[in-house]
Description:
Elements: E1 8-11, H1 15-24, E2 28-36, H2 38-44, E3 50-57, E4 64-72, E5 91-94, H3 98-107, E6 117-119, E7 123-129, E8 135-141
Parallel strand pairs: 1-4, 5-8
Antiparallel strand pairs: 2-3, 3-4, 6-7, 7-8
Amino acid sequence: MAIKLENVGxxxxxxxxxxxxxxxxxxxxxxxxxxxxEWADTAVGLDGNHAKIAVLQTPDGQGxxxxxxxxxxxxxxxxxxxxxxxxxxxxxxxxxxxxxALRIAAKHGCTPLRGVATYGDxxxxxxxxxxxxxxxxxxxELKKD
Length: 145
């Protein structure tokens, strides 16, 4: 059986704010829609499912995020995920310039949870809290001498 990762789906408070954050980081919007109906209820497992959606793609064409802003039923606020919680953890991106990526994130009020770390001589990386409390990891591969 062949298997391929299609996307990571994330429910958000404000789809426009979240699209702005990720497009500023370099993703592009592939499509937008509003979904509802029996097929959506069945697929998602929620009666009366009605949501705005947007699919964003990374510049390399390999990664996609599918964002959902629920119109019905009401979105449920939870505490933001902590790095050590079981379940959906975070979405990670490699970047060419972590300092530039952090400047862009800061324009959206998003800063590292603690700071930027260096993992051996391989990566500079950080976790930050993005829109709707999404944990985002940014990693810059260090140049080999």
